[in-house]
């Protein structure tokens, strides 16, 4: 059981740590030169995001955005393995089961932070070195600049909750944190493919897919950070020029072909279908080794999750970021009311049998009425941005 959530404790902790550079803190917030720097500092938990971290980062981003002496914001992770591998799924699962407010508060406040990053008037530079999944994507992808390295491992593994989930992912059965906004805007149907299969991109491929804006060798990041903070009253163009100069000197994997290049034609055709049933039908008809592999992956996933995700992306393609986050908040609450989210967590984290039993178990059994219901407004409980 989750301990009763102590809001006062969090507020006191925030006041104590609002300019914290104490190395034991979960998030370090400091001003260096022209930049505000956010450092996610839970290396043993792969810098996974929890509610107290969100409650420290959000007000600091808003403060720096208004501060005439702060010209850019940099976000990074410690430990060398991960930028941020997601969010704290155990706490949310326990809270959701007993109807604790944490399950609502986490998603509401996380999406509010995602929106603050997406609308931030100051250039926002995310150094996505290492594992970047779920909540880590939300902390990076909506900002101006995303710098990938050869160590970057990017995925939106939400539909694969029964496959890829680890104890540091808060994934809620669909690619949230604004996934419905940025994924359908990637070239062709790459975003649909990534969302529905949980496919992982590595290194320079994160740039080639259009998720990162720059690629810099991991060992050069400290020098890049030093140069960024040393800029004098920089404009967005000055920051872009500096990033471009580092990017152009980075030669790692430069000659390598994009991992999905040879499959792009198939991805664009197979994942353009209007329904999950149609996608499955097209994969079967195609019959190629690539199509069969995707079919095998999709068949292991929650049918509910697949249907929610496809509709989320199709609708999100023409929505503003704010409308997408409102839609995703509705979906997050629907998932917490349902069966499959908890079943995925049970199969991977609790019993560890890796054999989730989805309900409904087949795509055909997930009715349009059920899906429509998940997208319904929540009235006074809707996300307000």
UniProtKB/TrEMBL annotation:
What Gene3D superfamilies does its record include? 2-enoyl-CoA Hydratase, Chain A, domain 1
**SUPFAM superfamilies membership:** ClpP/crotonase
Q: What is its EC number?
A: 3.1.2.4
Domain (Enoyl-CoA hydratase/isomerase): give its ranges: 36-375
Coiled-coil spans are none
Q: Which UniProt keywords apply?
A: Branched-chain amino acid catabolism, Hydrolase, Mitochondrion
Keyword NAD among record annotations:
no
Compartments annotated for it: namely: Mitochondrion
Q: Which GO terms describe its biological process?
A: L-valine catabolic process
Listed pathway(s): Amino-acid degradation; L-valine degradation
Which catalysed reactions does the entry list for this protein? 3-hydroxy-2-methylpropanoyl-CoA + H2O = 3-hydroxy-2-methylpropanoate + CoA + H(+)
- Give any GO molecular function from the UniProt entry: 3-hydroxyisobutyryl-CoA hydrolase activity
Asked if the Swiss-Prot or TrEMBL record annotates the protein with the keyword Hydrolase, the reply is yes
Instruction: List the GO terms this entry assigns under cellular component, sorted alphabetically.
Output: mitochondrion
CDD domains listed in its UniProt record: crotonase-like
Family assignment from sequence similarity: Belongs to the enoyl-CoA hydratase/isomerase family.
Question: Which NCBIfam families does the entry link to?
Answer: PRK05617.1 (NF004127)
Q: What does the UniProt function comment say about this protein?
A: Hydrolyzes 3-hydroxyisobutyryl-CoA (HIBYL-CoA), a saline catabolite. Has high activity toward isobutyryl-CoA. Could be an isobutyryl-CoA dehydrogenase that functions in valine catabolism. Also hydrolyzes 3-hydroxypropanoyl-CoA.
Write down what this protein is called.
Answer: 3-hydroxyisobutyryl-CoA hydrolase
């Amino acid at each position: 059981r989750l301990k009763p959530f102590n809001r006062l404790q969090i507020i006191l902790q925030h006041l104590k740590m609002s300019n914290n550079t104490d190395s034991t803190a979960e998030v370090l917030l400091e001003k260096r030169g022209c930049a505000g720097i956010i450092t996610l500092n839970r290396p043993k938990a792969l810098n996974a995001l929890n509610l107290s971290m969100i409650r420290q980062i959000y007000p600091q981003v808003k403060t720096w955005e208004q501060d005439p002496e702060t010209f850019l914001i940099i976000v990074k992770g410690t430990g060398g393995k991960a930028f941020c591998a997601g969010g704290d799924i155990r706490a949310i699962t326990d809270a959701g089961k007993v109807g604790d407010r944490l399950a609502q508060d986490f998603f509401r406040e996380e999406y509010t932070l995602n929106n603050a990053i997406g609308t931030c008037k100051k250039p926002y530079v995310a150094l996505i070195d290492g594992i970047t999944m779920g909540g880590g994507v939300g902390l990076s992808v909506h900002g101006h600049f995303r710098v990938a390295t050869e160590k970057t491992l990017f995925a939106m593994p939400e539909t694969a909750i029964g496959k890829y989930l680890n104890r540091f992912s808060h994934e809620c059965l669909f690619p949230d944190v604004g996934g419905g906004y940025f994924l359908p805007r990637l070239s062709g149907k790459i975003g649909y493919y990534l969302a529905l299969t949980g496919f992982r991109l590595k290194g320079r491929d994160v740039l080639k897919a259009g998720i990162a804006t720059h690629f810099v060798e991991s060992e050069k990041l400290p020098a890049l950070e030093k140069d960024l903070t040393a800029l004098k009253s920089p404009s967005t163009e000055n920051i872009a020029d500096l990033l471009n100069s580092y990017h152009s000197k980075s030669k790692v994997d430069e000659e390598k072909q994009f991992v999905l290049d040879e499959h792009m034609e198939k991805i664009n055709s197979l994942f353009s279908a209007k329904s999950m049933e149609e996608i499955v039908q097209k994969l079967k008809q195609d019959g190629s080794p690539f199509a069969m592999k995707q079919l095998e992956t999709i068949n292991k996933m929650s049918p509910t999750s697949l249907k929610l995700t496809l509709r989320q992306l199709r609708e999100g393609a023409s929505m503003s970021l704010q409308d997408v986050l409102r839609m995703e908040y509705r979906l997050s609450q629907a998932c917490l009311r349902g069966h499959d989210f908890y079943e995925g967590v049970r199969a991977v984290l609790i019993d560890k049998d890796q054999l989730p039993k989805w309900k409904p178990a087949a795509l055909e059994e997930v009715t349009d009425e059920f899906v429509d219901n998940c997208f319904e407004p929540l009235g006074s409980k809707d996300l307000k941005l």
